[in-house]
Amino acid sequence: MTSSPQPVALITAGAAGIGAVLAHAFIESGYAVHVCDRDAKALEAFLAATPGASGSLADVADPVAVAAMFEDLERAHGRLDVLVNNAGIAGPTARIEDTTVEDWDHTIAVDLNSVFYVTRHAVPLLRNAGGGSIVNMSSNAGFFGFPYRLPYTASKWALIGITKTLAMELGPAQIRVNALCPGSVNGDRIDGVIQRDAQQQGVEVETIRKLYARQSSLRTFVDPEDIAAMAVFLASAAGAKISGQAIAIDGHTESLSNTSD
Prior knowledge:
alpha/beta, about 15% strand
């Protein structure tokens, strides 16, 4: 086991999308970064393009894979200072009676159970480092009801409860725990959600896209860089007294009604 001279950040689902933006932001801030991803091609491409980063092929919904990932992390760096629980999926867009048990279980496994699996391994390393920062990726769906998105919304509300509970539990060890609650984030995921939402309601995709934009007072979607900047801030000395918070990055969401009625 080696001990990195740099602070170390672990980013789940870090090889592409928001996770890759997070990883690069931490690297630019002086961190050594370890990412995990279940997409082997994405992980290979990320590591090839990011000298000095390390990574693990792991599905964080699998506790055995999570344990193996932490073995990789300890071999590569020997410490941990920041954990970003970024992994998540959109889940189904459907009425409750049309949501299958399999869809429910899969969404909860990826969006919620994974946070437990990863964090329980991370905390001893953070304690050994003398403290650190945990950032959980919730959503503005953690503040509202969200029609047709029940499994996703349930998981994001639960993440805020986990965040506040762990902030209390881990505060004496100088481990700060916060949740980020983005609005609609520009990228492939929201494009897919909008397409499924439009299909569910039988309306044009552009109608739903405009509806989502109108949910925010700023009438805008969020960029991944906005999320990364806040995560880095929370891990920095400037964020040293911030814990137990659910921080919206959403242009101020007025409502999450996603119906065109």
